Amino acid sequence: MYESEAKSKTNADKLAKQLEMQIADTMAKADEQARQLAEMASQKSRLLGENSDLNRQLEDAEAQLNATQRLRQQLQSQVEDGKRALDDEIKVGSAFSTEVNLTLIAAFLIGKASSPLASEDAPARVPATPRAARRGD
Questions:
Q1: CA dihedral 63, 67, 73, 79 (to 10 degrees)
Q2: Rounded to whole angstroms, how far apart are CA atoms 99 and 107?
Q3: Mind listing the pLDDT tens digit for each residue in 46-101?
Q4: For residues 137 and 127, is the Cβ–Cβ distance under 8 A?
Q5: Ramachandran area for residue 136 (φ above 0: left; ψ -120 to 50: alpha; else beta)
Q6: Is 126's pLDDT higher than 70?
């Protein structure tokens, strides 16, 4: 029986060594997984921070876009107002120019009809432009 006890003890020692090796492997795997878990937690924290920064940047960009669109609308409105004012000025200027030309023509015709110097021998001076009439040419 002594032999069988020695054999059993040897088998038990082998089994104990195998179990110790399995425990060491399991512990190493657990340590690796704990390290990976800590690394992932750190990465998650970093990504959440980056996400927060990007969301803040997006909000800032959207606010700038809205402000730019409002400014664009204001400028377009000012351009339209300017165009209307210019059209009005052109209409007033055109009407004034027509009135001045008609007045000059009427003055010329009245002057020619009532002037004793007006004859077919003496050519009458008619201003070429309204500007020349204002200067007295």
A1: -150
A2: 12
A3: 999 999 999 999 999 999 999 999 999 999 999 999 999 999 888 888 888 888 88
A4: yes
A5: left
A6: no
Domain range list for the chain: 2-98
Q: How is residue 17 written in tokens?
A: 């060594």
Q: In the prediction, which pLDDT does 106 show?
A: 81
State how far the alpha carbon of 44 is from the alpha carbons of 37, 41, 50, in Å. Answer: 10, 5, 10
Strands (E), the chain: none
- Give the integer Cα–Cα distance in Å for 104 and 127: 8
User: In one letter, which amino acid is 58?
Assistant: L
* pLDDT bracket for residue 2 (50, 70, 90): confident
